[in-house]
Amino acid sequence: MDLDFSSDDNAFRAEVRAFFETQYPSWILDKVRNGQTLGKPDLDASQAALNARGWLAPNWPKEYGGTGWTATQRFIFDEELERAAAPSVVPMGLLYVAPIICAFGSDEQKAAWLPDILSGKTFWAQGYSEPGSGSDLASLTTRAERAGEHYVVNGVKTWTSQGHYADWIFLLVRTSDETKKQDGISFLCVDMKSPGVTVRPIVTIDGSHYLNEVSFENVETSVDNRIGEEGRGWAYNRQLLSHERTSYAHVAGKQRQLSEIKRLAGELPWGEMAAGKAAFMHRIADAEIRLAALEYTTLRALAPLDAGQAPGDEASILKIVATEVAQLITELGLELAGLFAAPSIPDRDAATWRKGLETIPSFAIPATAAYFFTRAQTIYGGTNEIQRNIIFRMLGR
């Protein structure tokens, strides 16, 4: 494996870096650096800027609006986006469902949904986990009963990221009962404005509203909103999850986090706790080694994309490494924050959110929020325990 970047790749990196320095909305970067949370208008503006440059959908086929980039160029783009502190794209529409629409959707579905995803006109949510079906997703009980040219959907989905913003939601639903629970599951899309759809906020321990519970009570959606064949949803889901798991790496973002933690640790007055500082810096070095391994693993996992293939089971390895490194880094940030890590700040979208908190180090509250957020990363997208089972089966072939 050649780990050196070509002259063309280096030129591409310079082009991307210049874009974020001179053409990307600087006020979004200022908000991120100030520790503010970003609302939907911020996310829309960020994605509009990328779309105007033609850089919003690197993982789409070129004929549908993709960039045609190599896996290396995609990696470089992600690095420069995160190095600039720009927010990642909202993945549910662009990274998750759109590739499934491209691969398995009808021509009518592609024409109806893909342009609106790319333009930002529609915002998508993902309806997978249920109150009783998380790690064992195939045990889901949300049902869609066929009634002529419609399905009638009943059930509950939970941990629905940014579902309160969504115009559409894609669901895994049970359309028949089969001996093997993975069978009889279909991939269905629902307009969030449909009668019977209810969104309930889930406010997390740090005061953030990112997650939701979405219930469906006799919700009707057209048969035309089913992607692919009835009962084949689990097969489509496997391909979606391979794309999702390769999106967790965020190597440059982790490098930026770790660099900041190292800088802060070097500036703190450790005094008589020199031994504690040495131990802490040793843990930073361990995180840096793990992060370097993640970088190489990411490049290996993305390589099949250049051949037009979906990421393989190697995506499970990437998911484990990426999420565990993320947790390690945010644990370091939380430890550094110490006693100042406790406050819960419900609303950090205002530029003045620090008013009254001047005695608290500026990094402490965002570090706390980041720590809590990464607790879920080893759970969603298929728990790391499930990923280890996948790897075991892969090695046993």
Biggest sheet details: 4 strands, mixed
Strand order of the largest sheet: 1-4-5-8
Rough shape?
A: globular
CATH architecture of the largest domain: Up-down Bundle
Helix/strand/pairing category:
alpha+beta
How would you characterize this protein structure?
It is a single chain. The chain has 397 residues and is of the alpha+beta class. It folds into 3 domains: 7-89, no CATH class; 124-231, Butyryl-CoA Dehydrogenase, subunit A, domain 2 (Beta Barrel); 248-395, Butyryl-CoA Dehydrogenase, subunit A, domain 3 (Up-down Bundle). 47% of the residues lie in helices and 14% in strands. It contains 12 helices and 8 strands. The chain has helices at residues 7-22, 26-33, 40-52, 71-83, 91-104, 107-119, 233-246, 251-267, 274-302, 314-337, 364-375, 384-395; strands spanning 124-127, 143-147, 150-157, 168-174, 185-191, 197-203, 209-222, 226-227. The chain has a 4-stranded mixed β-sheet with strand order 1-4-5-8. Strands 2-3-7-6 form a 4-stranded antiparallel β-sheet, with no helix packed on it. A hairpin with a 2-residue loop joins β2 (143-147) and β3 (150-157). α5 packs across α7, α7 packs across α10 and α10 packs antiparallel against α12. The longest helix has 29 residues, at 274-302. The two termini are 24 Å apart. The mean pLDDT is 87.
Notable characteristics:
397 residues; alpha+beta; Butyryl-CoA Dehydrogenase, subunit A, domain 2; Butyryl-CoA Dehydrogenase, subunit A, domain 3; four-stranded antiparallel β-sheet; 12 helices; 8 strands; 47% helix; 14% strand
